[in-house]
Structure formats: structure tokens, C-alpha cells
Specification:
Length: about 1250
């Protein structure tokens, strides 16, 4: 217990956190030794690059603990190192009654050079030093030795990744104390700890701004203090210093309400859009992260329906902008194309009445609502000599211009619902929307209708979240000062308006030693951090007078933890298990119980928070309810409409935790009844975004893991794959031997070498000319590869080897869609088998030796890898939240992950279950609910068979199709053609004879050098001269169209399925077996042969071998003798001249497969021979146009995997980080964080 001495110093009589004999107990350090004595430090290079390779950040000689990962090193170096103002030489400033080691430092002289921090020790020292300095001045330490013990313990905990404060502490705390950094005041205020007087800051850093989470009020006033426009200024002040803020806007008048000066209010939404724009323009801290903001509206606000559907409509706008821009470009350029194609008088080319093609193009444009003004503008452009228009097109990347042009993208949105509303939903009762000023009912709607809109909005765009108003306020410790109406951006801090909370989180996994959780160390850490957070309240400055006063009065703290998912997996318990939930509940109960007991001890000497006396009865009632839950009580709770989930004593695998949970709450209540509490709240569970990376947590906050295999960053650049360290520990706990564990891990991570892989290995590659040097290069690159196809390229193998040994043209090497393995003749099955062996499956499902009953231990938030099918259920997330919520002062930041096929009803049920279990708030995230998310379905949209499998097939079939489509994604590039492309004088083609409905039809084609169709001839045997001539002239018309760039697809779509005689059965064609007309037959044949439209074939084409050339009347004998491999090699140039793409039906000749990629034997490389070029000529990767007036080059079979798609397959969200551009964002509570640079959309 603390005791205030006559001189204002504090004396401690009992043990508690301070140990015996009035000393702060040391757990991790030794008196007289350096705090870092047991830790090894190393220097590393920190570099963060954009996806295009450009450097975002680079710093040499970064000193960090040896145990830290490269990502943790990068985050502290890029995010938390002070970049300027650190003097090269410093001196101490003497201060009366302050120990010398706590004297603050300033630059030593005017000639001092300034730079940035380069060692993590500098950061740890300035943080812990500032806390100790202010703690000493505030009377938290008895002697200098106590202060030294605290200083050492805090530095050690930071360096050993046991715990970390929220980001603003790292940004701001200690800069003035350690380096003398200062600047002009920024409008902040603080309450002087000596006098209790609210004071305006005169310095920007003397009193740091360490709080991450703010709740701000807004009054229904436009320009005065506390009003709407003032709120944007207050928000900007917070964003600048790296903090987040939330506001309940329900006090603002709804649309149509009367204004004091006459007229009607424009309503809530217009002002929300202004605030959204303001937040989007501010980058927190300049180099820290994007603004973090929460917007809350009560369910009875007149504009609640508009608010619920705000983001849904904005996402629809994005979709419209993207689709509309592409449609404009297509249709407007089609008008240019129609003008160019005109073959008559020049003046008539621009007249739709005269030019029929132009008339059709204008009509097509109007059909899709292209404004007539744009149509007219294009015609005017054309008359002035322009031949095309570059209309800007947009995409659905979340940071694209399309998203930037709409509102609602810079905040999390939540609605506040009461028990009365949810009861009305259950009973299908009416719900009244209330005017803000006169309290009259403005509109009555069905509660279920509103609830349906909430469910749909959450399903469609992941917003709004729900905050359960009555549940929150039944656990409110200070209701006499008003109701809780708001929260911070991540929803974990819920308290009175105009208050702030500073967070800190403990890394649970660091307390697991030899399979046993170290309870004493955990409690010691919780107690010291409670003191640290309390000191932070005392030393802090705040962005407004109101927040400064109320934060000082209520002194709310936010102690929490991270890595519960990693801890449970290490201990061998599933996240979705009774044991896992019981452990989570017990750890949470111990943490908050210790924090409140510590708060009560401090209150015994320093006094309770100023609002305690009038709220004493309420706060002790809340404490009794927490204690009852810790004792496992089912009934007997006071003034709670929804009973909490009690601690599960029976299923907790560690009885010591249960005993400690009960005893700490007994003590917390007993001490509180005696002394009151120093703090109105003590705990939250934050998303631990950036600080989770600094602590190298596998999982953040209360979240489960998102993937079993992670891509860890290397100091010299690049990544390597590593299994979660939780996996081997869990396997060992389940009794698997080291050899079995090794095989299971290799199954997931891969062997990293192609040496003994099936299908593609050293032996098969050697047969293609790969020598020891090339094989070594491949193996070196495969260790970190996601897919082996990304290793087989010129950068790994060298351009000389690829061109001279493999015979690949340089132009082909530079094509990002080129698949070298495919060109070497390896099949998809070969690649898949080798991929699983080398790169791993990224899941443990199906791993050798692993029993199915153990699968659940390794379940993640999403399916793992290409073949993983298991993932945690929606309810498992909610039950885990409920297990912890009973012991948290505030709330929990948590994403409830839902699969893409979840329904609107599923969203509503998730919200309702959360309410019934006493959860205070939640946010749903249905996979793919954002436009920017790559959806699996989009990958198969060009393949009806694949689409059918994806819609109705098994999970395994879906995964197979998805993996196949990802690496075969087609890249489309527009190439404008503005003139008639003449056919070569001597050209290739083929003749197809067939019998359609008893009538002989001869189809002859002519091709360009690249294999594209350029002309057709149609002849009918023994037909009347009129019909025969008409078909001949029709063929000429089609040929002219093809040469002017009209896509063959257009003809195919226009003439297939036309019906007229002759029609019927087709004989003599291997793929077309019936036709509804001659034209139907001809364009089916052309589509199959030149477009690979197998959907129009009745028999799947197989391609042709050399000895099927000139099959004639199918006499059974070939008119070309069998060609040996050697002869084939020497005849490539001849084949270029005689082989027709259409004849081969765009399929590789079977006897040519041995030639793909060239021959290893140098003797086979003839002068001028280009085997790959020959293959390109035989089966070109250029297809006909997609839109009129243009031709489209389509390269299929490529491996330029879309970055978003690859990220999804790696377990990430598939969105790009707004700071570093990498696609390594993961869900983090209700926010997002980047696993590359540590950027986060939240507060921590």
C-alpha cells in the first residue's frame, strides 16, 4: 500500500507490486547490472520497398535485440525511431529533488549536429526514462532505488517484447526528456498534477501526447467551440499526433428539422461527408499512418437509414465509376472506329444518317446511357482530325481514384442499438425515429425492416458495426456523469465523451515457458503497466480543454494483451474449444483483477479519481459483477439485463489460473471498498496493430491466426517461408515425434528444393540443358518462392542461358505472362506436384502422420493455402469475445470473420448472438464484401465449366479450379487499329470440306503471318448460281471486315445459331456435328479453330499431329511420311510457312512437344532457327479483337499473378497498404494492419 509522506513523497508498506520493504520488486533484472545484460543486441539494415522495388525507407546499422525479427526491426526503425532533432552530443540539466539519472538532456552547445535515432535502446531508454521521470515528480517512487528498479524493469520488458504501449507513446514520449526536442504549442491543454489547475500548453513535447484513443463530443452548432466545424479541427490535431478518435453524431439534427434562423436542416449526412474528406486529407503524424476515425449514430436518429446505407451506396458508386469509365472508353472509341471504317465520301463519314456503322455505334452508346453531349463531342473531335479518345478508366483498388472520389472511406461506422430496439426486432414491433430538437416522432418504421437494412449493409460492405448501448451502460462505472455514447475507432475504448485512453498490451506467448504459463511474471507485468499507464495520464497533454479535464478526472486506462491465438496453439488447444475459451477468460480475469487491485492500492495513497465518490455505488456494483463472473456464478448479478458469460472453471486446463482469477478479484473488490479506485476503467482488448509487429506476435489482440505459414522478411531483402512456431510446439504437445513433426512442417512449408520433386526435378531439368550452376540458382531462389513458376525466369537463370541454351527469344523473356516451364513442355499436373513438394501446401490438412482429431488446433480465421478447407466458424469468434468480455472494463476490438457465402440472415444472427452473450460491440467482415477484394469467382468468369464447379462443386474442386485459374489468368491489352491491314501475297490457311444437311460446303481460310484470320472463302458444290454467288460475296464482306479490325468474335456472335435451310447434320468435320444453317456451321468452325471456342463444338478438338496433314478423303493412309525428331528440328522454318493456326485449332502439334523450349544439344541450334518463335507462329498467343475498331492481344497461360490474388492466397486481405504499397494487410480487430511496414488504420 502507498502512503503519502510529509514532503510529498510516497512510501509503500505492503508487498503488492512494490515487493517488501517498500521496494519495487524486480522480476526480470538485477540491481547493479545493466537492464539489457541478459539480452544480445545486433546491428541490422532496415529497408522497406514498394512492390515495384522502389525504396520507401532505408537505414543502416540499426541496433536491435538479436531475437527480434526483421519485420519488428523495420517497424521500430521506420515508425518509432525519431528521424530528426536527436543531438550528437548532450548534457544533463540539473533538477532539484530529482535523481541524477533522471535529469533530462539537452543539446550540448550550438555546434551540435542533429540526426535521428539508430538504436532501439535509445527508444526504450527515452520511453522508460520519461515514465520514471514523471513518476518520480508525481510521487510514485519512495527512493531512487525504487525508481531505478522501475526504469530497468520497463526497459527490459520493452526489449524482450513482453509488452508495448500504444503507438503515440513511441512517437512522442521522452523526446523532450531525452533530447530536449521541443516546438511551439499546438493548442493542447493539461491539468497540472501539483495544483489540479487546467493549463494551456506552451510546449509541443514537454508534456507528451501518449494517448491513442479519444472519444469526442459534437454539439448541434455549426461554427462555435464544440460544434461541427470545430470537431474537424480537433480531429486533425489528434490525427497529426498518431491518435484515433470516435464521435457519436446523434445530437445533430436530422434532415428537415427546423433551424433556429428559419428554414430546414440539410441533415446529418452532409456534415459526415465533410468530416470524412477532412480525415482523408490528413496522414497521421505525416509518416505514421492514415487517420483512424469512428462515426456512431443512434438507431432512433431520423437519418439512421441513410447512415446505414451510406457505404453501401458509395460502394455502388465505385462500381458504377469503374464500369462506366470502361464503357465510355469502349463505346466512344467505337464511334471513332465507325468513322474510320467509312468507305464513301469524307463528309458523310460523320453523319449517322448516312454512315450505317456510325449510326449503330451511336445507338450502342445511347443504349448504355452514354451522354449525348459526349457522343456529340466525339463526333466534333473526329471532324477536327482526332482518331481516338483516351477516356480515363478506373479500377476497384481501395486507394484508387474511384474510391477517392466517393465518401465514407475514412472511418469505421457503427450504430447504437438498445435492448428496446432488439426486443422490437424480436416482436416485429414498430420503431420510432425521434427529432433531435423537439423530441417528436418524425417517422415510424418496422424495427425488423431497419434491422434488415443493417444486416444487408454489413453483408454488402462490412459496415456498420453494432454497439449494444444498454449492455455498455450496465457495466458503466460512472453513470452519474452521463451515459456512454461513443467509442474510439476500434470500439475497444468506451467511456464518456471528451475522454481519452492510453493503451498497452502484453504479449501472452512470452509468458509461456517449458509449456507452463508463468502467472507471477504475468501479474507483475500487469501491475507495472497499470502504474505506467497511470503515470501517462498525469504527464499527458490533450487536444482540448474538455478532454484534458475529464481524462484527468476519470483517469481511464487501457491495459490489454495480444497473441492469445498463438498461445492457445502453442499449448495445443483449438481457438474454438472450451479449453481455449476458459484459458482466455482466466487470463483476462487475472489481468483486469490485478489492474483494479493496483488502482485501488494507488487510490489508498493518492486518492480515488475525482468522480469516484458520486459513482461509488455504481462502480462497486460493477466490481461485484466482475467478481461473480470470476467465481463462475450463473446467477446473482446486479442490474444486468443480459447475463455475462462466467469463467469456465471446469474446462480451464490450468487450475492455478482459476484460483488466481478468484483471489485477484477478491482483492480488487476488498481494496476498492476500502480505498476506492484511482482509475474509472483499467482494461480493454485493443487490436495491437503496429505494436503487435514490434512484439513479433503471431496473432493480434484476441484474434486467431490468419495463416499457418508466414513470409518472414530477410535483412538483406526478400522473404523466406516459415511455419508458425506455434505449430511444432503444438505437435510436440500432442505426442508427435521430431521426425513426424519435420515431415508435417515440410508438407506445409515445402522442401525448398526441387532436387527430388515429382515431375520437375534436377533430372528432368538436366534433360532440357540445365547445368549444375543453373540448378543451384533455382534451388537458392526456391526457398522463399510462393510458386515455382516465379523462379523460372531470366532473372534467376540469366538471360544468356535462357536465350542461347533454351532458345527463348529475348522479347518473350520480357513478357510478364511468359511461362517458362510450360514452354519446356511440363504439364500443369507436373507443376502442381512439384509446387506442393517445393513450396508446400501452406496448410497441415492432409499432412502425413497428422490425425484428423488434431486439425482443429491449427484452424485459422481463413482457409490456409490453396487446398485448405477448414476455418473457424462465425460463432467461435463471438464465443471467444464473450469469454473475455465479462472481465474487461471497456470492450474488445475484434473482427468476426465470415465466409463469402454467408447470407444477410447470417449477419443478423451473428449480431443477435453477440447481444445475447453480453458482448458490447462487434464488427462483421464477410470475405470479399469490399469491391477492392479479389473474389474467387472473378477468376473463373471466363470459363463456364470452371464457373459451374466453383458454384456447385466441392471445396476441393473449387480450390483446384481456383489455383489453376490464378496462374492462368489472362492479361488483356488494347491495341488500336486505324487502317485496313492487307493480307500477305502468299498466306497460310486451311480448307475444310463438310456436308451440311446433304449439301457440300468448302470453307477456305487465309491467315496473316501471326496466324490471325484475315479472310474466308465459301463455296457450295452443285448449288444454284444465285445462292452460291451470294455466299461467295458474303465471304468477301466478312474478309473486308476482318481486315479492318472487326473482331472475329463479333461475326461469331452475330451468325451462330442463325436458322435457315440448308441445315441439319454435319458430316466430315471432326468437331461440328450439326448446324442450324450454313452460316451457323461456318462460324462455329471458325470459332473453334481460331478462337478456341470449344463451347461451340460438339466434339472437343484434339489438335493435329504431323501425319494428319492433308487427310484428304480419309482414305486411311497419310500423304506425308512419318517425320523423325531430327528432321522436325531441321524443318522448323518450313513449318512456319506451311502450318495454319486454324488447321491446328490453336493446339500444339503433338509431335512438336519435344521441341518446346529448344534442345539442350547445341548441334540442334541451326543458324536462324527459332524453335520457340516457330511455336508462336504455329499457335500464336494473339487472338482476334474484343471490341469494334480494335484488336486485343491476349496472352494466356501466364504467371504474372495479380498481386491482390496472390496476397489472398497467402492469407492476407488482398488490399494494398496505403503507406508502403505492399499487399500484406491483415484484419486486425476492427482495423487493418500491414505486416510489411506496420501501418494500421487503428489506434495502436
Amino acid at each position: 500500500m502507498l502512503k503519502l509522506a510529509a514532503k510529498g513523497e510516497l512510501f509503500i508498506k505492503n508487498a503488492g507490486i512494490w515487493g517488501s520493504d517498500m521496494k519495487i520488486e524486480r522480476k526480470f533484472t538485477t540491481a547493479g547490472k545493466d537492464a539489457y545484460a541478459s539480452l544480445d543486441f545486433v546491428t541490422t539494415v532496415s529497408e522497406i520497398r514498394n512492390p515495384d522495388g522502389t525504396i520507401v525507407f532505408h537505414l543502416d546499422n540499426v541496433e536491435v535485440p538479436n531475437s527480434w525479427s526483421q519485420v519488428a526491426s523495420d517497424v521500430i526503425a521506420q515508425k518509432y525511431f525519431r528521424k530528426a532533432g536527436v543531438p550528437s552530443r548532450m548534457k544533463k540539466v540539473k533538477e532539484k529533488n530529482v535523481p541524477e539519472f533522471l535529469w533530462r538532456s539537452v543539446p550540448d552547445g550550438d555546434d551540435v549536429e542533429f540526426g535521428g535515432e539508430t538504436s532501439s535502446k535509445q527508444v526504450f531508454d527515452r520511453l522508460a526514462g520519461a515514465w520514471t521521470y514523471w513518476g518520480w515528480k508525481g510521487g510514485y517512487f519512495t527512493t531512487e532505488a525504487d525508481a531505478q528498479s522501475y526504469f530497468d524493469e520497463m526497459r527490459y520488458m520493452l526489449a524482450s517484447q513482453r509488452s508495448a504501449p500504444n503507438s503515440p507513446q513511441w512517437f512522442n514520449t521522452g523526446l523532450h526528456w531525452a533530447y530536449g526536442i521541443d516546438g511551439p504549442a499546438q493548442g493542447h491543454h493539461y491539468v497540472d498534477y501539483k495544483t489540479g489547475v487546467l493549463t494551456k500548453s506552451t510546449s509541443s513535447y514537454e508534456h507528451p501526447q501518449p494517448h491513442a484513443c479519444f472519444i469526442q463530443s459534437v454539439s448541434d452548432d455549426l461554427v462555435n467551440d464544440g460544434g461541427i466545424m470545430d470537431l474537424w479541427v480537433r480531429e486533425a490535431r489528434l490525427f497529426k499526433y498518431g491518435s484515433g478518435t470516435g464521435t457519436n453524431f446523434s445530437s445533430l439534427r436530422g434532415a428537415g428539422e427546423n433551424l433556429s434562423g428559419g428554414g430546414k436542416s440539410s441533415g446529418l449526412m452532409g456534415f459526415l461527408k465533410i468530416g470524412d474528406r477532412a480525415a482523408g486529407a490528413i496522414k497521421s503524424g505525416g509518416t505514421t499512418r492514415r487517420a483512424a476515425k469512428m462515426v456512431i449514430v443512434d438507431a432512433d436518429h431520423p437519418d439512421i437509414q441513410d447512415f446505414i446505407n451510406w457505404k453501401v451506396i458509395e460502394e455502388q458508386k465505385v462500381a458504377s465509376i469503374v464500369a462506366g469509365s470502361k464503357m465510355h472508353e469502349q463505346k466512344l472509341n467505337a464511334i471513332f472506329a465507325a468513322i474510320k471504317a467509312w468507305d464513301g465520301a469524307v463528309a458523310d463519314a460523320y453523319e449517322p444518317k448516312v454512315n450505317p456503322q456510325l449510326k449503330e455505334a451511336v445507338r450502342d452508346a445511347k443504349k448504355v446511357a452514354i451522354p449525348e453531349t459526349y457522343v456529340k463531342r466525339v463526333l466534333d473531335y473526329a471532324k477536327q482530325g482526332h482518331t481516338s479518345i483516351e477516356f480515363p478508366t478506373y479500377d476497384t483498388d481501395w486507394d484508387s481514384e474511384a474510391y477517392s472520389s466517393v465518401s465514407g472511406q475514412n472511418s469505421n461506422n457503427s450504430i447504437r442499438v438498445t435492448n428496446a430496439f432488439l426486443t422490437a426486432v424480436e416482436k416485429d414491433a414498430d420503431w420510432e425515429l425521434i427529432n433531435r430538437k423537439d423530441g417528436k416522432v418524425t417517422k415510424t418504421i418496422k424495427a425488423r425492416d431497419l434491422w434488415e437494412q443493417v444486416g444487408h449493409a454489413a453483408w454488402a460492405c462490412a459496415d456498420p458495426g453494432i454497439q449494444y448501448h444498454d449492455t455498455v451502460n450496465e457495466w458503466h462505472t460512472c453513470p452519474e456523469d452521463g451515459a456512454i455514447r461513443g467509442s474510439n475507432p476500434c470500439s475497444e475504448y468506451m467511456f464518456l465523451d471528451d475522454t481519452a485512453c492510453n493503451l498497452a498490451s502484453m504479449n501472452l506467448l512470452t509468458f509461456l515457458k517449458d509449456g507452463e504459463f508463468q502467472i507471477e511474471d504475468y501479474m507483475h507485468t500487469a501491475r507495472l503497466w497499470t502504474v505506467t499507464l497511470e503515470i501517462s495520464v498525469m504527464m499527458a497533454q490533450f487536444p482540448s480543454k474538455e478532454i484534458a479535464q475529464r481524462s484527468y478526472d476519470f483517469r481511464t486506462l487501457g491495459l490489454g494483451y495480444a497473441n492469445i491465438g498463438g498461445l492457445l496453439m502453442n499449448m495445443g488447444y483449438s481457438y474454438d474449444s472450451d479449453e481455449g475459451r476458459a484459458l482466455c477468460g482466466a487470463l483476462t480475469a487475472v489481468m483486469t483483477g490485478v489492474a483494479y487491485a493496483t488502482s485501488a492500492e494507488m487510490a489508498g495513497e493518492l486518492g480515488a479519481f475525482s468522480g469516484y465518490k458520486k459513482n461509488e455505488e455504481h462502480m462497486l456494483r460493477v466490481m461485484r459483477n466482475h467478481r461473480k463472473a470470476a467465481h463462475g456464478a450463473v446467477d446473482g448479478y446486479e442490474a444486468l439485463a443480459v447475463k455475462p458469460v462466467p469463467l469456465d472453471h471446469a474446462n480451464c486446463p490450468d487450475a492455478r489460473l482459476i484460483d488466481m482469477a478468484m483471489s485477484t478479484w477478491d482483492e480488487a473488490l476488498q481494496l476498492g471498498e476500502k480505498h476506492g479506485y484511482r482509475n474509472a476503467q483499467t482494461s480493454v482488448i485493443a487490436p495491437t496493430g503496429t505494436i503487435g509487429l514490434v512484439m513479433d506476435c503471431d496473432t493480434t489482440g484476441i484474434e486467431p491466426d490468419f495463416a499457418l505459414v508466414k513470409f518472414k522478411k530477410l535483412a538483406g531483402g526478400g522473404y523466406f517461408k516459415i511455419i508458425n512456431q506455434s505449430v511444432p510446439a503444438a505437435l510436440e504437445k500432442q505426442g508427435y515425434g521430431s521426425a513426424q513433426i519435420e515431415e508435417i512442417v515440410a508438407y506445409a512449408v515445402g522442401h525448398g528444393s526441387i532436387g527430388n520433386a515429382p515431375g520437375i526435378n534436377h533430372t528432368t531439368l538436366a534433360g532440357h540443358g540445365f547445368g549444375p550452376n543453373e540448378l543451384a540458382k533455382v534451388d537458392a531462389a526456391l526457398e522463399s518462392a510462393f510458386d515455382i513458376r516465379f523462379v523460372f525466369n531470366q532473372w534467376t537463370l540469366g538471360e544468356e542461358f535462357c536465350t542461347q541454351v533454351l532458345g527463348i527469344p529475348e522479347a518473350k523473356l520480357n513478357d510478364p505472362t511468359f511461362d517458362l516451364l510450360k514452354s519446356l513442355g511440363f504439364s500443369k499436373a507436373d507443376v502442381d506436384a512439384a509446387n506442393n513438394h517445393v513450396c508446400g501446401t501452406m496448410t497441415v490438412e492432409g499432412a502425413p502422420h497428422l490425425k484428423e482429431e488434431h486439425y482443429s488446433i491449427f484452424d485459422c480465421a481463413n482457409p490456409c493455402g490453396k487446398t485448405g478447407k477448414r476455418y473457424l466458424s462465425v460463432n467461435s469468434h463471438i464465443y471467444m469475445m464473450a469469454a473475455a468480455q465479462s472481465f474487461i472494463s471497456g470492450a474488445i476490438s475484434k473482427t468476426i470473420n465470415m465466409p463469402n457465402d454467408a447470407t444477410i440472415a447470417d449477419c443478423q444472427k451473428a449480431y443477435e448472438l453477440s447481444w445475447s452473450l453480453g458482448v458490447k460491440a462487434n464488427a462483421l467482415y464477410r470475405d470479399g464484401s469490399k469491391l477492392s477484394q479479389p473474389l474467387a469467382a472473378s477468376l473463373v468468369e471466363d470459363d463456364e465449366d470452371a464457373q459451374e464447379i466453383f458454384e456447385s462443386g466441392s471445396n476441393h474442386e473449387k480450390a483446384t479450379v481456383l489455383a489453376e485459374k490464378i496462374v492462368e489468368k489472362i492479361i488483356v491489352k488494347e491495341i488500336i487499329k486505324s487502317h485496313r491491314e492487307k493480307m500477305p501475297q502468299r498466306r497460310k490457311g486451311y480448307t475444310q470440306k463438310a456436308n451440311v444437311g446433304g449439301h457440300k460446303v468448302y470453307l477456305r481460310t487465309g491467315e496473316y503471318e501471326d496466324g490471325n484470320l484475315g479472310e474466308i472463302f465459301i463455296d457450295m458444290h452443285k448449288e444454284g448460281a444465285g445462292f452460291r454467288a451470294m455466299m461467295n460475296n458474303f465471304a468477301i464482306a466478312v474478309s473486308v471486315g476482318l481486315q479492318y479490325g472487326v473482331p472475329l468474335e463479333e461475326f461469331v456472335d452475330a451468325f451462330t445459331f442463325t436458322k435457315f435451310e440448308p441445315a441439319g447434320m454435319v458430316q466430315g468435320n471432326d468437331s461440328i456435328k450439326s448446324a442450324t444453317s450454313i452460316l451457323d456451321y461456318i462460324f462455329r468452325e471458325l470459332a473453334v479453330s481460331y478462337l478456341d471456342r470449344t463451347d461451340l463444338a460438339h466434339v472437343q478438338p484434339e489438335g493435329a499431329s504431323f501425319d494428319s496433314l492433308g487427310g484428304g478423303e480419309q482414305t486411311g493412309s497419310s500423304n506425308v511420311s512419318e517425320v523423325s525428331d531430327t528432321t522436325a528440328n531441321k524443318s522448323l522454318e518450313v513449318l512456319k510457312q506451311i502450318s495454319s493456326t486454324g488447321y491446328l485449332r490453336k493446339r500444339l502439334p503433338q509431335d512438336l512437344v519435344v521441341l518446346q523450349g529448344g534442345m539442350a544439344d547445341a548441334n540442334a541450334q541451326l543458324a536462324g532457327a527459332d524453335p520457340v518463335g516457330a511455336l508462336q507462329t504455329l499457335v500464336p498467343e494473339v487472338a482476334a479483337a474484343v471490341s469494334a475498331g480494335s484488336s486485343t492481344a491476349i496472352s494466356s497461360g501466364g504467371v504474372a499473378m495479380d498481386a491482390r490474388v496472390k496476397a489472398k492466397m497467402q492469407g492476407y486481405e488482398g488490399e494494398a497498404c496505403g503507406e508502403c504499397g505492399n499487399y500484406t494487410l491483415v484484419r486486425n480487430g476492427t482495423c487493418m494492419k500491414c505486416n510489411t511496414c506496420g501501418g494500421t488504420s487503428g489506434c495502436s
